[in-house]
Amino acid sequence: MKGLIILLAVALAASAACAAVTPAGIFTDNAVLQRGMPIPVWGTADDGEKVTVQIADQTASTTAKDGKWMVRLAPMQAGGPYKMTISGSSTVELANILVGEVWICSGQSNMQFALNRASNGAEAAAAANDRSLRLYTVPMKTSYEPLTDVAGKWDVCSPEVAAEFTAVGYFFGRDLRKALGVPVGLIDSSWGGTFAEAWTSPEGFKALPDYASWIAEQNAAKANGPNHPCVLFDAMINPLVPYAMRGAIWYQGEANAGKALKYRTLFPNMIKSWRDAWGEGEFPFLFVQLAPFMEIKAEPQESAWAELREAQLLTTKTCPNTGMAVITDVGNPKDIHPKDKEPVGARLAIAARKLAYGENIVFAGPVYKGMKVSGNSITLYFANVGGGLVAKGGDLTGFTIAGEDHKFVNATAKIVSGNKVVVSSPVVAKPVAVRYGWADCPVVNLWNKEDLPASPFRTDDFPMVTAKN
User: Fold this and answer.
1) Which of 378, 360, 384 is nearest to 436 (CA)?
2) What is the helix, strand, coil percentage profile of the chain, to 5?
3) Which of 21, 37, 185, 333 has its CA 20 to 30 A from that of 291?
4) Cross-strand pairs, 41
């Protein structure tokens, strides 16, 4: 009897020593897999263990090495639900898997902002019964080393789940579902009050030598909190790599407004660092321009927030396959978290329909492209005019003009021939530059007939207030 007990103990110990085959934490019941591209599936197992993944009519096998395994399934068409079986020394079955469109939703507090806090959030959440919309929230976590796993789960969209999910992400996904008619999966990885530096990969900073000494100091100190280089990429983005997805939406910049000049290079490099990590090429990266915030000023002034908006606008021109949602109409002078999130998600979805899915639509509002001085006025020319320029709600507002002294004054602006704007002021005889919406909290109304607002801009390159930061 004693010998039998010993044998049983040995057998149990040997069984415990065998690590169960485990998929990465991004693979759970109710997941959405990206259609139309190879699908990596990965996890952990004992070295040398054969692991087999089966879904629909596909079976793929590999052998675990250094405790890790990965297979790549062939591209699949939208559909489901399917069961995914992952087998080795043990078997894991994942149920209710769909194939469709996958997007990452990231940034700081205005992305994290929950649907139940939005201006029409209660009604939107109550209607959020869509079994083909799936939602995943990455837990907030930091790390000074790249993590490879995440502890979350996919949920079927319901009023209860949607209410706690990112409002911008939900409205974006809801509109994509309507436009595409296929399953949509959204992965929310956001953290309020965070810098873009925290969301940039270590590889991304190699192209930014000005940050080297700061990064070395930060890595040596290893302070707690999210606002340190790479700690959110390492903990909240890297564990998602290389999950197949279509693209990312991003709402951030408030925390970086004081360093807008640096954001001109930081932000495009952050985007590139994500693209390099995934290795899927220049996937669509869509972002939100900062909303109006702080006191409305009657007279023209310099503005760090205007400079950050400009950095975001420049990113659409220097970084391929990017799009920007302009939200000059939904800000709040007294609240850095404007509650009207539905137009934000809607405009991101419009950009996705063009950039990710190739629809022949106007996907952005008017964007300044050139000017011509004629006597005491300046004529402005725009891209994304669409069906024509519109002064929404009355005469054009938000334009200022400067002469050779570089002092801006409020100006009169008029739409000419449906696609140009002529700007002037009786106190500026020889104008050299025009600005539009150049303020912390701009009051502006230039749109196109497709109902999309123009981005704030300036025609000059005068010194920036954030250049010293």
Assistant:
1) 378
2) 30, 30, 45
3) 185
4) 71
Does 129 fall in a domain? Answer: yes
Measured distance CA(279)–CA(295) in Å, rounded: 43
Phi, psi of 198 (to 5 degrees): -70, -25
Do 132 and 50 lie in a common domain? no
- Whether 314 and 381 share a structural domain: no
**How much is the mean pLDDT over the chain?**
95
In a domain, 279, yes or no: yes
Q: Cα–Cα–Cα angle for 388, 390, 392, nearest 5°?
A: 160
Same domain, 132 and 77: no
Threshold 0.85, pTM exceeds:
yes
Residue 66 lies in a domain: yes
Report the alpha-carbon distance of residue 362 to residue 452 in Å, rounded: 9
Q: Do 27 and 147 share a domain, yes or no?
A: no
Q: CA 140 to CA 81: how far, in whole Å?
A: 29
Peptide bond into 333 cis (omega under 30): no
246: left (phi over 0), alpha (psi -120 to 50) or beta: alpha
User: Based on the domain organization, do 274 and 232 belong to the same domain?
Assistant: yes
Q: What is the pLDDT of residues 240-299, one digit of tens each?
A: 999 999 999 999 999 999 999 999 999 999 999 999 999 999 999 999 999 999 999 999
Alpha-carbon distance 465 to 261, whole Å? 9
Cβ contacts of residue 417 below 8 Å, gap of 6+?
none
Alpha carbon 145 to chain centroid, angstroms: 23
Q: How far apart are CA 438 and CA 446, in angstroms?
A: 13
pLDDT digit string (tens) for 73-103? 999 999 999 999 999 999 999 999 999 999 9
Task: Kindly tell me the burial class for residue 40, based on how many C-beta atoms sit within 10 Å of its own C-beta (0-12, 13-18, 19 or more).
Answer: middle
CA 13 remoteness from chain centre:
47
**CA gap 333, 260 in Å, rounded:** 20
Residue 463 falls within a domain, yes or no?
A: no
Q: What angle in degrees, to the nearest 10, is found between the helix axes of 304-318 and 260-278? A: 40
Going by C-alpha positions, the residue among 385, 361, 401, 378 that lies closest to residue 446 is: 385
